[in-house]
């Protein structure tokens, strides 16, 4: 029987590609962040879906400039070798001022195939 319950891991145990994405995203380094995704990747954020490298790059550029905020990784979980959750606490000048977001990653061939961001 396959266990689908996420188990808590240390942030250092996240796969390298996720760490590289998170580091680039925090640094507003869109060029590096885009390289962590498969060519046909999808991102779901704030009710919108972004498909493919060009759309994901535009989403990253917009999200880097839309608001000013700090972001701290507060929890990491692994469901299996392809599914991870990285929870972040954000504080900034966006509506509400603070939020905890779960970044749900699906990996394929050591790249991010799918990223869903939700609260």
From TrEMBL:
Domain of life: Bacteria
UniProt cross-references to Pfam families, sorted A to Z: SnoaL_2
All copies of domain SnoaL-like, residue ranges: 18-112
UniProt-listed SUPFAM superfamilies: NTF2-like
Protein name per the record: Nuclear transport factor 2 family protein
